[in-house]
Structure formats: C-alpha cells, structure tokens
C-alpha cells in the first residue's frame, strides 16, 4: 500500500492487491479443482434414490423451487468454479441424451474425482489415473452387457415398461400415484412410437399443466390441447369433421412500415376510409370461407371487427396461439401454415375429427382440444395439481418417465437397479485388477471403489447403515453368483431387484 496525490493535491491510497495473489500450480491446482467438484457431488448425494431428499432453491427474486430432479437442481445452482460447471454440463448432457439418472451421474463423477484425489496424494500421475479409469470402464461395460436382460416390452400388458417407469417416478414427489403416471407414460409413448423402426417422435407428446384438482386427476388425452378458448363467446364450442386453416398473419389491414399521417377533412372521407377497412376484413374472411375451412387458428390476434365478421360467417376461431403449438397442430393435422391471405388454398387445410372447448371445474378457465388428427397421432398429458410448484415438479417427473420408456422402446435391454449393477461392476473390476501388473492397478481399484458410492448413498438415504448394507449386498452377489442383489431401499425384506421390480434402462 502506498500514498499518492492527484492533480488537485488530494491524497489517495494505492492498494497492491495483485502482489497478495499467487497462481496455484501443480498438485495444488489438481486438488483445488477436485475439491470444487466434490462439493457439488456431496450436495447431490442426499437426493439420490427413492428416499432421497428434495432440495429447496431460492432465486435472487425470492422465487422458491422445491425439486428432486438432478438436472433442475444443477441448472438452478449458481456455480462459478469452472470444474463445477463441467458437472452441471454433465447433468445437462445426461438429461438431453437419456432423460433420467441426472443425479446419479453427478454422484458417480464426484466419487471418481474423490478417488483421484487420494491417488494423487499417493504420488500417481494424472495420466496414469486416467489410463486406469479407461481400463476399468471397459471392464464395467463388458460386465453390464453380461448382466443385462433383453425384455419383451409388449408382454403382460407392457408390465416391464410400467415397472421401468415406476422406478423412475419412485424418487419424485408424485411417488404416491406412480402406478397411474407410469401407465400414462407407457400409453403415451406406445401411442406415438414406430415399433418397426424402434423410434419415438417425442414432439407428438405434449405435457401441459393446470392448477386445480389433485395429482390423481392427471389424464392422457387423445389429441392436442391448446391453452386458448374460442375468440368470441357466441361461437360454437364444438366443431366436428374440422377443416382447419392455420394462419401466420393477423386479421387486420396492412400497416405501412414508415411513419404516416392520414388527413380526413370531412365525414365522406372518414366513411370512405371505414368502408375500405371493412372491405379488407370482408375479403379476408371470404378467402377463408371459400377455401372450405370451417375453423381458423391464428398465431396473431384480430380486433373486434374481424372477430364479429368471423362469427357472422360461422367461422369459429382461436387467436394468439403460440408458435410451438401452431407447428404441432400443422404436423398432426397435415395442414400447412399460411403466411398470407393470398396463399390460402383448400389443399393447405388441416383435418381433425373434432375440435372442442373444455372447461375445468367451477373455474372460468377454458382450453381447446383437437382430437382425431388426420396426419399423425398426437397425445397430450394433462397434469393437475394444487399449485404451480406441484404441477411443475410433476411435469418434470413425467418427462423423466417418458424418456425411460422411450429408451426401452429403442433398446429393450435392462439392468436391475438398487445399486446392483454398480456392485456387480465393482466386483468384476476388482477381480480384473489382480491381473494388472502396472501401477494403473491402483486407478482400476479406485474406479471400483467409486462405483460403490452409488449403493452407499442409496443405503444412507434410506436410513440403513451404509457400509453394512453394501457389504451384505456385495457378499450376496459373490456367494449366490446373483448380480441382481442390491440395496433394499423400501425395506421390504427382499434384496433381489428383479423380484422387487426395480428396472433401469441399459442405456442409462
């Protein structure tokens, strides 16, 4: 610190902050980075499994979010450390590719880095650790292929798919009705799946939430639901054999792109302007009517004049429909989005069996459902709940279960959860490590120890003695040569995860 004076003779202090800072290098840098990742992993550890705790997140605006979803927790955490940000990206990648297991991947990554920290303290070079981890990973993948089962997803009324979806929902806030939601998820995926190509078009499943009622009122609707009602209260509330005109242009006269003034000197000029505008509306409605359409869906709005003319011409209409909904309606009904009134033609109309306005309970809230879409099967899951927080968490849980079922349609191999596959891989890796003569043996064993962090966390969150529960499960696998023995989180007295119906997709 030193004293200096400006041009007016006023003193100011110069602080040499940079002199107090120093760059972290070598082993200390490794340890600092690994420690940051450990903090994130330890935070997520308590949310793992069916008995994992929810996290309450408070935003800078004091908005409260309570969730158990790993990807959501990681996304909402304000992480600044670059290594910790990598774990956030890892969770996002898992959510985008697989859809489930976002908490587990963070816990496993944290455990691997924690073991790496111990190996660095022993003097192992980071490259040797990485090589050992790669060898152990190959052994683990090979073991997973051995213990994975190919399931007939269509057998017993899709029982295996329902069990997999229930496993995903078991750790969520909706676990009390996980059976119903699992069945809804299975029906939704199979409703839009192409089983020959083993492909699922996720875009044809829409999940919408509405406050009011309870979680048990959640239902699967055969059609597309739009959170809009008909633009005029006197329009018909039901259109059968609908021929839908999908517009991307507003019902209004064209506006100049530059500033302009209109000078009206007398009543005749005003009437002429009014008649011109009126004729424009009449021409627009006539084009719609002449195309054969009996319903109009518009992305933009229209004023009272256009609304009144649509009513007079018996053309029920929806306005201010969002762009995503417009595209979904166009895909499902086989229609094309029309950007200008001049481009309207009969072949661009979408077709549906029924368009109907729905109301909910005693509230004035209304929504519109489009059923029997002509081109592609479209389904909507209507989620109900007591408040927005419950509805949002239920939507996240249903998204995870949909992803699990989709993954099984693509690849019908499963492993049995409860930490059983991690323990089976850990045992296989430890056995293989005895045959490795190089120093990488330490890293291979460390990988096996890191895998045991998943069953340890499951046991800890379930109120069991973690080391004792994992030791019993591990001994049971070795003694009975049964790779399905895991942690009995629900304390039902059965450690065989196949008998407990705990299914996890092989891809996850």
Please explain how this structure is put together:
The protein has helices at 17-20, 26-45, 70-76, 82-97, 102-122, 126-147, 159-169, 178-192, 267-290, 304-312, 323-333, 388-410, 420-433, 440-451, 453-461, 466-480, 497-500, and strands spanning 2-5, 11-14, 55-58, 64-67, 149-150, 193-194, 199-200, 205-211, 219-221, 224-226, 238-247, 295-298, 317-318, 337-338, 350-359, 366-373, 379-385, 413-416, 503-505. The chain is α+β, with helices and mostly antiparallel strands and 508 residues long. Strands 10, 11, 12, 13, 14, 15 and 16 form a seven-stranded mixed sheet that branches. Strand 1 (2-5) and strand 2 form a beta hairpin. The longest helix is centred in the middle third of the chain and has 24 residues, at 267-290. The chain is globular, with a radius of gyration of 30 Å. The mean pLDDT is 86.
């Amino acid at each position: 610190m030193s004293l200096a004076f400006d041009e007016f003779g006023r003193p100011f202090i110069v602080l040499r902050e940079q002199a107090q800072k120093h760059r972290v290098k070598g082993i200390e840098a490794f340890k600092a980075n690994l420690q940051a990742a450990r903090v994130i992993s330890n935070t997520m550890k308590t949310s793992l499994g069916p008995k994992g705790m929810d996290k309450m997140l408070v935003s800078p605006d004091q908005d409260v979010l309570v969730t158990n979803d790993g990807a959501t927790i990681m996304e909402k955490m304000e992480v600044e450390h670059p290594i910790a940000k990598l774990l956030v990206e890892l969770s996002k990648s898992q959510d985008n590719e697989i859809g489930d297991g976002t908490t587990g991947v963070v816990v496993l990554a944290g455990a691997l880095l924690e073991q790496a920290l111990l190996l660095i303290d022993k003097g192992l070079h980071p490259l040797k650790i990485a090589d050992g981890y790669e060898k152990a990973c190959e052994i683990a993948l090979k073991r997973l292929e051995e213990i994975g089962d190919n399931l007939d997803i269509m057998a017993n009324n899709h029982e295996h798919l329902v069990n997999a979806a229930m496993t995903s929902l078991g750790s969520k806030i909706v676990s009390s009705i996980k059976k119903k939601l699992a069945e809804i998820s299975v029906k939704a995926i199979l409703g839009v799946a192409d089983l020959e190509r083993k492909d699922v078009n996720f875009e044809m499943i829409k999940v919408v939430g509405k406050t009011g009622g309870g979680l048990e009122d959640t239902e699967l609707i055969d059609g597309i639901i739009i959170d809009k009602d008909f633009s005029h209260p006197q329009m018909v509330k039901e259109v059968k054999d609908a021929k839908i005109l999908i517009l991307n242009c507003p019902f209004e006269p064209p506006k100049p792109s530059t500033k302009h003034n209109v000078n009206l000197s007398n009543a005749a000029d005003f009437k002429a302007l009014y008649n011109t505008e009126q004729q424009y509306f009449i021409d627009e409605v006539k084009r719609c009517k002449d195309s054969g359409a009996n319903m109009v869906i518009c992305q933009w709005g229209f004023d009272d004049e256009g609304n009144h003319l649509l009513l007079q011409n018996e053309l029920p209409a929806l306005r201010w429909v969002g762009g995503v909904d417009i595209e979904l309606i166009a895909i499902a009904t086989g229609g094309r989005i029309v950007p200008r009134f001049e481009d309207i033609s009969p072949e661009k109309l979408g077709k549906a069996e029924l368009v109907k306005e729905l109301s909910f309970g005693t509230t004035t809230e209304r929504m519109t459902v489009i059923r029997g879409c002509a081109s592609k099967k479209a389904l909507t899951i209507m989620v109900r709940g007591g408040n927005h927080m419950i509805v949002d968490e239920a939507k996240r849980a249903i998204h995870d279960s949909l992803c699990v079922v989709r993954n099984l349609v693509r690849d019908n191999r499963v492993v049995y959860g409860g930490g059983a596959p991690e323990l089976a891989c850990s045992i296989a890796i430890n056995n293989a490590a005895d045959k490795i003569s190089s120093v990488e043996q330490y890293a291979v064993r460390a990988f096996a120890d890191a895998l045991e962090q998943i069953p340890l966390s499951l046991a800890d969150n379930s109120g069991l003695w973690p080391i004792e529960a994992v030791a019993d499960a591990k001994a049971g696998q070795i003694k009975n040569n049964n790779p399905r023995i895991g942690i009995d989180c629900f304390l039902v007295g059965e450690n065989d995860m196949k008998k407990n119906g705990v299914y996890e997709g092989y891809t996850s």
